[in-house]
C-alpha cells in the first residue's frame, strides 16, 4: 500500500478509520464524518487520480474559456457598468458588460502567465490581457501559457511547495464574485457550450450507466466524466494507454445491406406458388417454412410448394 496520499486531503466517502469517533451508527453530533480514509496519490505525483485529472481538465479548457468570456464581452464595444457610473451625451452608448467578465478573463490569464513564467525559469509576474484584446487573440495568449504548464505538469504535481498553489489558482471554486477568479470559478459561472453524449458503457468506479462523453476540442482528447452524485471518476481518451477511448467509443452503426429480391413478402410468396396467404401461414404453423423478419426465402417457398404438390399426387 502506498504511503503517499492526496496532498489536498481527499478521503474515500463512507470509509472510516477504526478510531473515528464520528462514524458510529448511533452518533448524532453536528459533525458526522462522511469518510476519513485518505485517498492514495497517483503514481509519481502528490494528487489523487481525481484531483490530477480535474486540474488537467481545467488547464486544457482555460484558453477556450477565456476566449468564450471575451466573445461574450466585446471589449471594443462594451464598458463595465457595475463599477463606475458614466454619463454621456453621445447617442452611441456602449453596451453594458458586467465587470466580472473582464475581471475573470484577466485574472485567469494573469495566473496562468505567472505559472508559465515560473516553469520557464523567468522570475517575473504574469501579465494580464492587453486592453481591447479580441477573443481569438486572448485564446492564443492563454494557450501559450497552458502549453508550457501542461508540459511540466507532472513535475509541478510532485512538488509539495507548488502543487497546492497551482490547484488554488485553477481548480478551487470560491463561489459568488471572488476577489481573484480561478478557472473553475469561471467555468461554473460561464460554462462552455458543449454537446456531450451519454456513454454506452458503465462507469468503472460506481458501475452505473452515468458517464458523459465530451468530444475533444482544438486537438484535445475526448473526456469522460461520471455524473453520479458522489462519484468523482473522470478520464480522457489518452489515459491508461487509450483504454477509455475504446470502452466509451460510439457503437458502430448497424450494417445496412441491400435488399435481396429473393426474400419475399407473404403476398409475394403466395403469388409465386399460386396459393393463398392463409396457405403459406399454415406452412409456417406446420414448421415447413421459417420466416425471417416477416420475409420468406424464395427457394424455401418453392420447395414446400413442390412437396405439397407431390403429396397431392
Q: Overview of this structure, please?
A:
With 313 residues, the protein is α+β, with helices and mostly antiparallel strands. The protein has four domains: 40 residues, no CATH class; 145 residues; 59 residues, no CATH class; 50 residues. It is 38% helix and 7% strand. The protein contains ten helices and eight strands. Strands 3-4-5-6 form a four-stranded antiparallel sheet, covered by helices on one side. Strands 1-2 form a two-stranded parallel ribbon. A two-stranded antiparallel sheet has the order 7-8. A hairpin with an 8-residue loop joins strand 4 and strand 5. Helix 2 runs parallel beside helix 3. About 3% of the residues have low confidence.
Question: What is the total domain count?
Answer: 4
The largest sheet has its strands arranged as: 3-4-5-6
- Structural class label: alpha+beta
Q: Report low-confidence residues grouped into runs of 5 or more.
A: 77-86
How large a portion of the residues is in β-strands, by DSSP E?
5-15%
- Rg estimate, integer Å: 32 Å
Number of helices: 10
Shape: elongated
The average pLDDT score comes to 84
Percent in helix: 25-40%
The tally of beta strands, per DSSP, is 8
SSE string: HEEHHHHHEEEEHEHHEH
Calculate the terminal CA-CA distance, rounded to whole Å. 84 Å
Largest sheet: 4 strands, antiparallel
At a glance:
Helix content is 38%, strand content 7%.
